[in-house]
What does this fold into?
Amino acid sequence: MTGDGKDPAPSPPDITTRDLLRQFWRDVYGKEVQSASTYSYTWMADQLGHICIGILADFLATFAVGRWMYGADATYRDGSLGGLLITVAAVSLWELSAYRSSVTQATAVFVLDKKLLRDNAIIAAVYMALGGVVGFAFHQIAAYAFPIAFGVLGVAIILAPRWLRQKIIWQKAGLPYLFRLADAVPTISTDGARELQKFIDAPTPPEVSARQVIIGGPVGSGRTSLATGLGTEFAFKGHKVRYVGFASLLEFASDVTPGRYPDDSGPANIGYWPWSEAQLVVIDDIGPEMVDPLQTAPNIERLSNLLGRSLQPIRNVLAQRHTVWIVGDHFDFQPAGSGLNDIAKLIKEYCSSSEPTLLIELSAASPEPPLPKGTVSVKQVNVRRIEKAQ
It folds into this structure.
């Protein structure tokens, strides 16, 4: 929202220290039965769990080392240093194994973000190792135990801001779930994956001109998963993303006034990025809005009217940022068919885009064996670039 009547420009996320403290308080003081769960809360709970695992591992390792070195006469401090070293080594090897397993499971269709995956494994190992240090402190006299424990607390706090900022950026996108494209089953064509990867890796508005991605396909083809994957990849790269339904967008556009763009900010403890400020807007559920109440099939002319009239007040805003449009089924998806092509051209013309529009057609899912947990099948028929509206 702007106060000078000008259209808001897309902007990157800006998470201040004050924002971090406010989110921390909402996550820690609030109750999950009263409010939506957040990625920032989940991350803090994970790290607390990792610290507890480290403490338990250290106690077990210290007990084993003490008995091995001193027998039944071992005291609670005997073997504490050896227990700590074994704990640090064990948790490091565990996370290394988990990292390698994740790399192996990736389908190699899209580029795997190994750096983020590696850093995530490292920070998990570090927090478990910090738990091991706390366990070590418990085996020392009070004069040593308390300084060590508070030192661990300080390190844990110092390490947290980078990761909390990352989680806040993800959760404020409002995506229905997180999905990494590297986990997609390899049914998308190499050329199609390459086109999408270029789009993901390129700079975002306002650094570059906005582009449009149109995803069409029947129920079960993975269209929302693919679109969510695109949103996830952009959010993971630190861009401001917003997921919104087409019906909500129509409602927002109906109440626009100069410098004011209505929005739904979501749960109070999250606060979605304003769609009018996002660098990438993912627009879902367009198909149902194209169905005329007196007809049973979608009407492209109806979409043209919605874009030209109902969404006209926000046209300039959407045209300034990347947009992903999820169309749905009901159309002739043959390469020679005109349905999805016409929709792509309408959207391109609506956004007055000078950049190529990426059109992705997804086919119906075919019967196949159950997929590994955490994977989504992306059935790719065709990927085309719409260079200009006709």
The two ends are 34 Å apart (CA to CA).
